């Protein structure tokens, strides 16, 4: 990776993410007008991508009437936290939030453990059936989620897991893509350390827990991010796994608000306040792991 | 590189007794993940396959004695019954077809544009722009659908914007008129020519197939483009950063303009990524569910009904479980065909990977993902992301 910039270029680069090796003089190949047009285009596009979220936040502080009377303004004429009061104190929202948190935490722990164990075994251990298992996991990865809506309900129903926390959580722990990512990662790190520990007589389980997992931190963080975001934002599985309102997660609950469980009126501010609150955890995750998310989503798990 | 040493240290023990006990460990380590995948992915598919050829009505176990094998009756009902089930299925395929036709090219083009702009060599605020464009991709499909339907409500932000330039916007979520029908109407073709109205496919006349996406569907189409372009932008950025600068510099020396360099030098080199993005888009767009469930429930006038949502509706609302499973399998077939097509075109990479290994490279000899693995992983993750955008599927 070229992380150097030539001195002349570096002197003008303030953005730490600019890691290109640009030959000096390249800058001059762009005309000033071209530069201006570039920034105009970028800023215009950024406005298009950001403004909807600003409207979202602003509207959640407006009154019902103002939400539709002045939909473009970012500053409410009469500030009100009424929508948030409704969300937090006069709806099942806190319950949904707790359910989402529970599901997300358990699913994420489960995926990190099981994905890394399976990925390690497939990458490093020799045992009969390994090739078949890996081929199966690749095959399963291709199964599209929506096709499983009806099938998953059938199995949960058959197993008596429908309408319970086990049905919400356990199926989501199954994660072929995560196993695939972990296997790839373990194949990418040198085997020498493990061999040394193995010669010293460490058991496979011990070796995995105290030698392999600590080395796998970058990939585990990737699994953590994907899993957190995936289960927090999951909707379709919860739809087919339960119907009891006590088991609603945020996604399912807010979707039910959207399809008019609020009674009279459109109540856009309430819906949008709910949307804001449910976005916060993912946004925080995004801010903390920003660079890694943008890297891992592009597939480059480095370090 | 250190490949030679890594290789010997990696291979020597294979013959020795050091790896005893690995069979037990291997099975133990893989068991949780494999059992979960079997029980919640493989078994469900087999069970749904049975339900799709049975008359199970939703009560009791589908394996009980009261449930009968009915052959392909459920499949026949949705593909040739002549009833509502058939026309609903045809309508959902039509809707999804227009959705795919608009979303895939537009999201790809927009992602490429964003990547090219963000990847400009000297750029202030690169991180900011990249974050801004990618953020919609990580937010929940439910939250963003709620927002989008607010923006598109008759007195919402979109119509307010249109009002600023003197256009009276439509009642987006309630307007079932086909966009293509509207355009044809502008050139005077207001009613169906006889030959298009008299025959059709899957219970829908050819004229209705040609309706185009409805105005209501445009809400979901724009939403999909908004949320997926950031993900695919990252794939394009990764690809752009891997391109050699020498070729471009040579073109620059030859006096090629920026546009010429992009079209004749950069774009041809991006072909593999372009292809990946297009097929991932094709696979993801056939799975629209969350947005329909949250936002439109198939309205207006069934014009946002998609096969995925129809399958849910047939089972959970109409208790037609056999038909619901049959719809799921037909959708599965469509997506499998697209996936196989993708794997088939991308298979060359697999070959070169094997060659690399034969040539003496052990996996990960430089402590990083190799290019082939990186691409595969990228495709896997982005596939999952696209999948989730489209469906809330399980990555």
UniProtKB/TrEMBL annotation, chain A:
Transmembrane segments: 36-54, 96-120, 132-153, 165-186, 207-228, 268-289
GO-annotated biological processes: transmembrane transport
GO CC terms, sorted: plasma membrane
Pfam families, A to Z: BPD_transp_1
Membrane topology: Multi-pass membrane protein
Keywords assigned: Cell membrane, Membrane, Transmembrane, Transmembrane helix, Transport
PROSITE patterns listed in its UniProt record: ABC_TM1 (PS50928)
Claim: Secreted is one of the keywords in the record: no
Cell location: Cell membrane
Domain ABC transmembrane type-1, residue spans: 97-289
Family per similarity comment: Belongs to the binding-protein-dependent transport system permease family.
Identification of the protein by name: Carbohydrate ABC transporter permease
Provenance organism: Amnibacterium setariae
UniProtKB/TrEMBL annotation, chain B:
The organism of origin for this protein: Amnibacterium setariae
Protein name: Sugar ABC transporter permease
TM region positions: 21-51, 97-120, 132-152, 215-240, 270-289, 324-346
Localization of this protein: Cell membrane
Membrane topology: Multi-pass membrane protein
Similarity field: Belongs to the binding-protein-dependent transport system permease family.
Cell membrane as UniProt keyword: yes
Keywords, ordered alphabetically: Cell membrane, Membrane, Transmembrane, Transmembrane helix, Transport
Domain ABC transmembrane type-1 per the UniProt entry, residue ranges: 93-342
One Gene Ontology biological process: transmembrane transport
